[in-house]
Amino acid sequence: MHVTIIGAGLGGLVLARVLHVRGIPATVHEAEPSPAARTQGGMLDIHEHDGQWAIEAAGLTDEFRGLILEGREAARVLDGDGTVLFDDPAEGTAGRPEVQRGDLRRILLDSLPDGTVHWGHKVSGVRAVGEGRHEVTFADGTTVTTNLLVGADGAWSRVRPLLSSATPAYAGISFVETFLFDADTRHPATAKAVGAGSMFVPAPGKAITAHREAGGNLHTYVQLVRPQEWFAAIDFTDPAAATARIAREFAGWAPELTALITDGDTAPVLRPIHALPAGHRWERVPGVTLVGDAGHLMVPNGEGANLAMLDGAELGRALAASPDDVEAALTGYERALFPRSAEAAADDILGRFLDDTAPHGLVGFLNQAGQDH
Ligand SMILES: Cc1cc2nc3c(=O)[nH]c(=O)nc-3n(C[C@H](O)[C@H](O)[C@H](O)COP(=O)(O)OP(=O)(O)OC[C@H]3O[C@@H](n4cnc5c(N)ncnc54)[C@H](O)[C@@H]3O)c2cc1C
């Protein structure tokens, strides 16, 4: 067995690693030219039952523990005027340690044999060539043919059309990403408001969410429930104008909060949020399957990266357990995948916390979660 994986995100890399430790070779084709081509997004809280389980299956628990940023599980909810409504500095007992996504990707890359990842291999097309085999074409015109193809290529997967005609749709919300570097020194009031871990400031239809990352950097997602046309009217190639327009939505909020927008050290980046239909599934097609966002892109709810890793680990284990019957392995993998992802996608946490109950809906939820714990 040799597995051809498209995409070196967390899902594809966990799959490659779990296969490797079980003696099954794999090649990962990644569009980006190198591991350093792009910074890899912010902090991820890695849950015991999925992300951490996958890391254990990959044999990387010790390496993972070395990445944990202590204290980052703390959580606060503020009102727009800066009033603290919820403050849990001890959220660190919740079993959801926070790591930087780029660090997690690095330990996975370091754990694979040299040459496993083929960088700069952007897939432009895939087609069935019969008997469960598929031909993959890359942007440079080269091709590979494989018995077992796995699409781990994220939201806009090129592999997914082999299985399903579904495409992601705009979810009615976009994020605007900003950073404040070295905030304890340069923006002490804002650093204090954010606290040791995550800060959420939800209001109906909008929120400011910030995470404390390594080095006292504050990573912000401004969340706005607006149609795409609303954002299209903002010129994000003009950072000052875009910043001013986004900040206007938060007029009257406490200055230590709006500083996360107005004092950004980087140009604001617009991230429109898309999702596949909740409950997306497909009929079994010999020789191909999907992991992660390629199969179940959902509105961010703290699960996507964890699920992608779990998918990769589950698929790797299924293939290793059934090397003589790949179709049985894929059938078993998908049988568990579909209800698991449907359940996660049904949890529209953002919709719930940005409705008319904001900010108190989230405060009630966190208080209840604390009592249940
Ligand atoms: C703003 C935001 C915040 C989020 N926060 C969280 C969070 O806090 N916790 C959490 O668990 N999840 C979070 N998520 C969701 C999470 O980022 C995704 O669910 C996760 O990255 C999915 O992993 P993946 O491996 O399936 O896909 P990806 O991480 O998207 O990786 C896909 C890989 O495939 C490559 N690729 C794409 N197309 C091609 C091609 N044609 N040819 C070759 N390679 C290709 C890409 O370059 C990429 O490396 C967030 C998402 C967003 C948008």
UniProtKB/TrEMBL annotation:
Its cofactor is FAD. The keyword Transport does not apply. Keywords: Cytoplasm, FAD, Flavoprotein, Monooxygenase, NADP, Nucleotide-binding, Oxidoreductase. The keyword ATP-binding does not apply. NADPH binds at R38. One of its GO terms (cellular component) is cytoplasm. It is found in: Cytoplasm. It catalyses: a tetracycline + NADPH + O2 + H(+) = an 11a-hydroxytetracycline + NADP(+) + H2O. Its EC number is 1.14.13.-. InterPro entries: FAD-bd (IPR002938), FAD/NAD-bd_sf (IPR036188), TetX_monooxygenase (IPR043683). One of its GO terms (molecular function) is monooxygenase activity. Residues 2-322 form the FAD-binding domain. Monomer. Belongs to the aromatic-ring hydroxylase family. TetX subfamily. An FAD-requiring monooxygenase active on some tetracycline antibiotic derivatives, which leads to their inactivation. Hydroxylates carbon 11a of tetracycline and some analogs. Consists of an N-terminal FAD-binding domain with a Rossman fold and a C-terminal substrate-binding domain. This is Flavin-dependent monooxygenase. It comes from Amycolatopsis endophytica. The lineage of its organism: Bacteria, Bacillati, Actinomycetota, Actinomycetes, Pseudonocardiales.
